[in-house]
Design a protein that fits this description.
The complex is a heterodimer. By secondary structure, chain A is α/β, with parallel strands linked by helices. Chain A has 17 helices and 11 strands. Chain B folds into 2 domains: about 250 residues, Glycogen Phosphorylase B (Rossmann fold), CATH 3.40.50; about 160 residues, Rossmann fold. Chain B is about 40% helix and about 15% strand. Classes of the chains: A alpha/beta, B alpha/beta.
Chain lengths: ~425, ~425
């Protein structure tokens, strides 16, 4: 069996509004509804709506043989519901075909897996519930934020009952092996690992419109030729941002034409089939174990975490947001939970990266801040306000009730009495 | 290569960035094997000679009986320069300006057949006159020395450069460290502008200290973009020795250090200070320097009722600058127009985090600095607050900033300049 597995990442963060220190203690709304709504509408019109429609057409045309999968972050879903409900509807229509799989992830596209097991598990749970309520299917395969994975994370994911996780086919992990087979966690043998074929994925996601790339211009014919050249593959995992279609690669580049012709070309000129991750999990046996002692991701040349963590600004912000956890858990006011979770979204830390001072137009593209410092200052100001609010709320909720006061008094008395009873 | 350079000041007798830049550049050039003959209007004898051979124009004997000079001098008209429009007037210069008003007699004795001219080398009201005389003496110098190319720093020396070029037939590079628009905003001194334009029109190539300046030279002086190249200043010369902080107050200190004049944007600093103090009283703001806007700033601070936390030091020199940096927790340069701006580099070297305006040339080269628009006092106040309250941010700036300034090297500037020379000469 030879499968092509398409997985598309759909994500939008709740971007912060410019939040100055004058706002601390006064203004408790942190997120830039106007900008977020504007971006959602724009990406919906350029990508989500037209691409979903094309996908639906392709599924119908091929009588269900064209199958794809998505992972949609909770922050994206929340924004679609708020700003662009038509996007939710079009994903629902896709879900109804039965040819589309939705995967599990953390609700707010967070890095909780690196910091708090409790929060990680909670976020995966509420995301799964959200997907089920919107699309009527419970996710079976897990994908972590930015495909971040390590043995430790795999362990937690297996504990939650998932049978597979998808991640990057990082060269430094694979060594002489390749990503065209399924692997397993070294100890949790039931957890299968599906790895991104970064060469063929990035040919579409990044290089498609690059005039200097030898493969340019990329056509469905050429791409299928490349697929046929691969020796003994079981699965070719093509993982990419969904915004590749129409947003990163504009309509004018011909990306939609490429996509439109790909399935029929695959069927007519190769013996590949299209399958979803769950189908791969059922059909494939792992060819080996994959050891990942330090976390990998799908970002940059390094395939590590340095886009989000590592410089002092990022580390400080990251530590601070999770320092709130104990306090937040004592509070049942949902507003705190929402703010705290939206602030965990990995993008906030990505904006603070200083790695691409020298290169990186890709990164500037996703960044509405002028500099990493601005991103950090804004975030730190927001955290200052959240901290004040939280402390105030805790003081109120911890004011002793009359009954408690009485009990405390009794306890004190018993302490005072203690020495006497000892003497007795 | 042998370069004949015209400048106006040289360490230790400097009043601003020009002398510092000339020293850094020539030192790097000489280290790399070039020979630099550096002409200043007046040498005091204690100039650093490690970087260049310093020649004082005051020591050059000129035969004024030559027709050339007679003609030149007759065509010359004097324009007195209003001292407030003159760059880099420090406190001591100001007294000289006053004194000079009473001794103008040199002018009348000029047409003796052979004499030397004693330049003040300062920026007094007879500045334009000195500029002209300096140019005449340049003609003499141009014949006395052997060199491959001529290089003139800033408008005061452009005429000298052009005359030297005409006499020697060598190529002329002029180096724009600032333009009249940086010094005076839109209210330019036409005479100064004319000299700048004359220098640029007659130069074979124009070097600017930033793209900001390059754009001004192209758009406001009508120069061909192909003739104008940006070569950034270095930072690794003349760094102050590190001084241990001897802060006597417990509050954090935020510093403005520079001339208190329109183009340095001192008023924006005061406005931002008032914003910060509204929320955080544990900060002291210091305005170090003097200038024609100082009184207005004192009045503004009083009007804002922030004088309890806002202090003026007057003009600081030498080691005092050093100590000021050592006491500072944040340095702000809110310049309205700054061709380059060396002081933030000095601050970073002294481990002080800096906030600089986007309207400064140095913002084109610095990464570890917070950049704001000079008019955006909200952003400026926010940056000040953040640096004072979020240690992760200030620590990063202190650590990385020091490294960054050390990497901005005059040697690289000198290399670029030499490549430019070769291109012009080939």
């Amino acid at each position: 069996m030879k499968s092509i597995c398409f997985y598309f990442q759909v994500h939008q963060p709740f971007r912060l509004k410019p939040y100055r220190f004058f706002d601390i203690g006064r203004n408790h709304s942190y997120f830039d509804d106007i900008q977020n709504a504007w971006i959602c509408r724009r990406v919906a019109d350029k990508c989500y709506i037209p691409t979903n429609k094309l996908m639906l057409d392709l599924i119908k045309e091929n009588n269900g043989a064209f199958r794809i999968s998505y992972s949609i972050s909770g922050t994206a879903l929340d924004q679609f519901e708020k700003f662009t409900p038509d996007v939710i509807d079009s994903f629902r229509t896709l879900a109804e075909t039965g040819c589309v799989e939705f995967m599990a992830e953390t609700y707010t596209h967070s890095l909780a897996s690196l910091k708090s097991k409790q929060e990680f598990i909670d976020q995966v749970k509420i995301h799964s519930r959200k997907i089920e309520s919107l699309f009527g299917v419970k996710p079976k395969v897990f994908r972590n934020t930015e495909l971040i994975y390590s043995d430790e994370i795999g362990d937690m994911v297996a504990d939650m009952g998932y049978t597979a996780q998808i991640t990057e086919g990082a060269k430094h992990i694979l060594g002489w092996r390749n990503s065209n087979h399924a692997y397993s966690h070294p100890e949790r043998k039931n957890l299968k690992l599906l790895l991104k074929n970064f060469q063929l994925s990035d040919d579409i996601a990044f290089r498609f419109s690059q005039h200097t790339w030898p493969g340019f211009p990329l056509t469905a014919d050429k791409y299928v030729d490349w697929l046929n050249e691969i020796e003994n593959p079981e699965c070719i995992n093509l993982f990419m941002d969904y915004e590749t279609f129409g947003e990163h690669q504009w309509k004018e580049t011909g990306i939609f034409e490429f996509l439109k012709h790909l399935p029929s070309r695959v069927f007519s000129h190769s013996n590949f089939s299209f399958n979803t991750p769950s189908e791969l999990v059922q059909n494939l046996n792992p060819v080996g174990e994959m050891h990942v002692p330090t976390p990998i991701s799908w970002a940059d040349e390094e395939r590590d975490l340095t886009a989000w963590l590592g410089n002092d600004l990022q580390d400080d912000a990251f530590n601070q947001i999770y320092e709130f956890e104990d306090k937040i858990r004592k509070i049942d006011d949902l507003n705190f939970w929402i703010d705290w979770r939206y602030l965990q979204t990995s993008d906030h830390f990505y904006y603070m990266c200083t790695k691409w001072f020298s290169d990186g137009d890709v990164h500037k593209y996703f960044n509405h801040y002028d500099s990493p410092y601005e991103a950090y200052m804004n975030y730190a100001n927001v955290l200052s306000d959240l901290r004040i609010r939280l402390d105030d709320a805790l003081i109120v909720s911890h004011l002793p009730t009359m009954e408690q006061t009485k009990k405390d008094l009794v306890r004190k008395e018993s302490i005072i009495e203690a020495p006497i009873s000892k003497i007795k | 290569m042998r370069i004949l350079m015209f400048g106006w000041e040289y360490p230790p007798h400097i009043t601003g960035g020009l002398g510092t830049a000339c020293f850094g550049l020539t030192k790097a050039m000489v280290t790399q094997g070039d020979e630099v003959i550096f002409i200043v209007p007046k040498a005091y004898g204690d100039e650093s000679t490690e970087a260049a051979r310093i020649v004082s124009a005051s020591d050059i004997v000129v035969d004024f009986s030559k027709d050339f000079y007679k003609e030149y001098w007759n065509n010359l008209s004097y324009i007195e320069v209003n001292s407030t429009l003159v760059p880099y007037v420090g406190v001591d210069d100001f007294y000289n300006v006053i004194n000079n008003r009473f001794k103008k007699e040199e002018k009348t004795t000029l047409l003796e057949s052979q004499r030397k001219y004693e330049f003040s080398g300062k920026y007094g009201p007879s500045l334009l006159e000195e500029v002209e005389r300096y140019a005449m003496i340049a003609a003499e110098i141009a014949q006395q020395y052997e060199y491959d190319i001529i290089h003139a720093h800033d408008w005061l020396t452009y005429k000298a450069g052009v005359i030297a070029k005409k006499i020697s037939n060598k190529k002329l590079v002029i180096h724009v460290h600032a333009t009249e628009f940086d010094r005076s905003g839109e209210h330019i001194n036409q005479a100064v502008y004319d000299i700048e334009r004359y220098g640029m029109d007659n130069a074979d190539h124009i070097v600017c200290v930033s793209d900001l300046t390059r754009n001004i030279v192209i758009s406001r002086y009508g120069q061909d973009p192909n003739k104008v190249t940006t070569i950034y200043n270095g930072a690794n010369s003349l760094f102050l020795n590190e001084v241990r902080a001897d802060k006597a107050v417990k509050e954090k200190i935020v510093t403005f250090l520079g001339r208190v004049t329109f183009q340095k944007g001192p008023d924006y600093f005061v406005e931002a200070a008032a914003k910060v103090l509204e929320y955080d009283k544990n900060v002291r703001f210091v305005m170090a320097g003097s200038g024609d806007m100082l009184n207005r700033m004192v009045a503004l601070v009083a009007k804002k009722r922030i004088s309890k936390n806002f202090h003026f030091t007057g003009f600081l020199k030498g080691d005092e600058v050093n100590r000021m940096f050592a006491m500072s927790d944040v340095y702000v340069m809110p310049s309205v127009s700054e061709p380059f701006g060396i002081s933030p580099l000095e601050a970073m070297n002294a481990r002080v985090p800096v906030i600089i305006s986007k309207q400064s040339g140095v913002s084109e080269v610095l990464k570890y600095a917070i950049k704001v628009d000079f008019w955006d006092i909200d952003a400026m106040a926010n940056a000040i607050y953040s640096l004072l309250n979020y240690p992760a941010l200030s620590k990063m700036f202190i650590k990385k900033g020091k490294k960054e300034v050390e990497s901005i090297r005059w040697e690289d500037s000198a290399n670029e300049l030499r490549n430019l020379y070769y291109k012009l000469l080939s």
